[in-house]
Amino acid sequence: MGIFSRRQTAVIEPTSTAGTSTPAAEAWSTGAALDPALRALTGRWTIDRPHSRIGFSVRHAMVTTVRGAFTDYDSTLYFDGARPSASRAELVIRVASVDTGVEQRDAHLVGADFFDVRRYPEMVFRSTSTVHEGGESFRMTGDLTIRDVTRPVELQLDYLGSVLDPFGYERAGFDGTTTIDRTEWGLVYNQRLKNGGAMVSEKVRLQFDISAIRSTS
C-alpha cells in the first residue's frame, strides 16, 4: 500500500427531516455508507505523474501478457466526498508517449495499424457520472475517445487513502480498472495464428494507479 492506508468505513445515519435531500440521506437510499473522512477530500486534484501509472495489458499470441503505459498526459479531477455523484474527471493522453519497453513495438503501436498518432495524437477520457458503491469503492462512467471514436466505458475505482507527505503535499490514492474491446474504437489490426486464435487479443485491460495532489489554485 506504500504511503497510503485504507480507512475504516463509518455509517452516516440519515436525517429524519421530511422532504429534505442530504448527502447522507442520498447515500443511505442507495445502500452505500459514506466515510466521513472522504468529506475532507472535497476539492480539485491533479495526478502526480512521477508517482502514478496510466497503464494497459493485453494478451499476446494467446500465451503471454504485454504491459505498457502512457507517460504524458494532463488531468483535471474534482472529488466531492460528501456527494460522490458530483465528482468528475478528465484525462487527456498524448498517445505518442506509449511505452511497452520495446522500441520496435512502440513504433508499431503509434503507427497507422494501431493508434495512428499523426492523425489522432490524443486519447481522452471524460467522466459522465460517479456512483458510490459502498466503503471505498466507486463506479465511474465516462466517454473514452480513441481515433476520434467516442464510446462509454465504466471504471471500477477504489479509494486507497490520503496523507500529508513530507513535502507538505496532500495526496489521495485511487486504483481504477476497466476492460475494453479495442475493435470498438477502430483498433482492428491483427494476425491469425496457425493453430487458431489471434496474435493480439481484442480485449485490453486499462489500469489507473493514481496518486493525486490537491490543487492550490
Automatic annotation (TrEMBL):
The lineage of its organism: Bacteria, Bacillati, Actinomycetota, Actinomycetes, Kitasatosporales. It holds the Pfam family YceI. Residues 44-213 form the Lipid/polyisoprenoid-binding YceI-like domain. It comes from the Bacteria. This is YceI family protein. Belongs to the UPF0312 family. SMART domains: YceI. Residues 1-25 are annotated as: Disordered. Residues 13-25 have a biased composition (Low complexity).
